[in-house]
Amino acid sequence: MKKVILMACAVAMLATVQAKPVDNAKLSINKNNIKVWTFQNSQNPVFLYKAETTYDTALEKAVSLILDVDHAVQWVPYMGSIKVLSRDDKKGEFLLYMVLDFPFPLKDRDLVVQGKMIKDAQGIITIKNKAVDKGYAKNPDYVRLTHYEGDWTFQKLANNKIKVSTYGYANPEGSIPLTFVNMFVQQQPYQMLQKMKMELGKPSSIPALPEALR
């Protein structure tokens, strides 16, 4: 069973080192029960973001969707392909190779994501992701992303009621106008959480979570 973590992003392409919006965060989107905040710091011209929503579903089902690598291309925006390079379900560690399908005329991006999944004493599940510049040979057809950090957080609020948060930052590299990148940062997490709701609404069984999350 090829299950492992998705990057927040693709996102799969963007994520944040912050646990909550900072003082200068702007509520950029607030509709359909989804909120997206964007903010900047002195080190990064590209927006960072936080997005959150609630779903009427089991926590295990939502986490399993994120871990279902084979299914990711069907619903994660801009996800071209994803491959599991290594995984240790007992330790909750994984390594992924991802290709992001950027719109023409932009060159597609790829990245190697190192991740960790954790369940705390309160039952909150966190999936942390970070790009690493090793583990997979570079392909001249793609622009390699090396500056990416992000995470997902899943919290049970009641029976079949959960809160899902995703945070992110990434440098898309290459010659892309900053205004385009920052617009993408606002829209991508919103689109992803909407698509996630649609996927969770489909009837399916609830797979067992990896050992590290039980």
List the helices and strands and how they pair.
Elements: E1 26-31, E2 34-41, E3 44-55, H1 59-67, H2 69-72, E4 79-88, E5 93-100, E6 109-119, E7 125-132, E8 143-144, E9 148-158, E10 161-170, H3 178-200
Parallel strand pairs: 6-8
Antiparallel strand pairs: 1-2, 2-3, 3-10, 4-5, 5-6, 6-7, 7-9, 9-10
Please explain how this structure is put together.
The protein has a single domain (26-213), classed as Alpha-D-Glucose-1,6-Bisphosphate, Chain A, domain 4. It is globular, with a radius of gyration of 16 Å. The model is unreliable at 1-21 (pLDDT under 50). It is an alpha+beta fold. The chain is 17% helix and 40% strand. It has helices spanning 59-67, 69-72, 178-200, and strands spanning 26-31, 34-41, 44-55, 79-88, 93-100, 109-119, 125-132, 143-144, 148-158, 161-170.
The CATH class is Alpha Beta
Q: Please state the overall shape, judged from the principal axes of the Cα atoms.
A: globular
Tell me the fraction of residues in β-strands, as a range: 35-45%
Under the CATH scheme, which architecture would be assigned? 2-Layer Sandwich
Task: Give the C-alpha Rg.
Answer: 16 Å
Separation, N- and C-terminal Cα atoms = 17 Å
How many separate domains? 1
Query: Which stretches of 5+ consecutive residues score pLDDT under 50?
Result: 1-21
Q: What composes the largest sheet?
A: 10 strands, mixed
CATH homologous superfamily identity: START domain
Helix content: 10-25%
Q: How many β-strand stretches?
A: 10
CATH fold label: Alpha-D-Glucose-1,6-Bisphosphate, Chain A, domain 4
Give the H and E element order. EEEHHEEEEEEEH
| Arithmetic mean pLDDT | 85
The count of helical stretches stands at: 3
- Kindly name the structural category: alpha+beta
Domain START: 37-205
Protein name: START domain-containing protein
Pfam families: START
Signal peptide: 1-19
